[in-house]
Amino acid sequence: MRKTIIITAVLLYSLTGKAQESSAKLKVHAANMGLGSFHLEKDVNGHDGVCFVADLTLSLNKNLISASYLGGTSIKILDGPNYNFEEFSLLYGREWKALNWLRFEGFAGLGQFKQSSKDSNIGEDSTVSFPLRINTKFYFTKKFGMGFNTNYSINSINNNFSNNIIFHLRFN
Q1: Which of these, 107, 89, 87, 108, lies nearest to 5 by C-alpha position?
Q2: Structural domain for 148, as ranges
Q3: What is the pLDDT of residues 95-117, one digit of tens each?
Q4: CA dist 33 → 22, 95, 110 (Å)
Q5: How confident is the model over 41-53, as pLDDT tens digits?
């Protein structure tokens, strides 16, 4: 976790320095919040469940930098094993404007993935992750929209795939 914080601080410091040297300015681009479902790739016990995603995205010219939280928990009806995960990540991406009301964003980054479970096959662990994300956004006004958020987290513990419906607020 300490390495992730240091890498994040160095990256933000270098971006701020570049923003002050040139005419480019680091601006708050957008905020997303949503709910969805997740699926674990290395799991045979059926720990699929619900997840929550929240992120804040900054822009520097056409470059997007996003700080993101993704967390989820399994839903078991009859006292089955419980599974929880959290992923904090810093992502770099770009936006593509298809139409005035339709936009796509693609991101890749570095994160911290933590999981905990009462299942003896999974246990509690933490590792570095490489998250990939695609946002599809439909705008109702110039600033507000909804869309789909697809995440794939590559890590050494348990690769995680999630789909979320997001609410999107654009600032610039």
Answers
A1: 89
A2: 2-170
A3: 999 998 999 999 999 999 998 87
A4: 32, 18, 20
A5: 765 555 678 999 9
